[in-house]
Amino acid sequence: MTAIEQMQHLLLQMQVDRLNADYAAALDEKRFEEWPEFFTEDGRYKVQARENFDRGLPLALMALESRGMMKDRVYGVTQTIYHGPYYMRHVVSPARILSQEGDAIRAEANYAVFRTKPGSVSEVYNVGRYIDELTQKDGSLKFRSRLCVYDSEMILNSLIYPV
Is CB count within 10 Å lower at the N or C end of the chain? Predict the structure, then answer.
């Protein structure tokens, strides 16, 4: 790899890590209306158990196939679902850039989401990895697809918020 290619790779690494940090901050700060904007118009979002992923089985806890479906989910989360309050905190590892071909980028990062109910201790809510397809247009990155493959065999309560 030439010095210029190394610099381009480092710049891309920083951009992907920044996207993941901004994504996590939006969710942790409950700015859910911003969540669909991290995706292309036809972006896909899926939360799937590792067991199903490893076996090639399609069943997922959540599977959204467009930004419109994500906006519907945000409406449901913010306007129609009632649950006890809690805070979320995402911890996301640096991404591994797997490939780049033109404006198409494939990357993976590990994540852990912690949940804290007021007056209670924090607990591990969801742990896994993001498997991402990204696109770079006009100098910014967006998700074409984000697959959240979670390692836990059981999840606490129901999955309300995106991970």
Answer: N
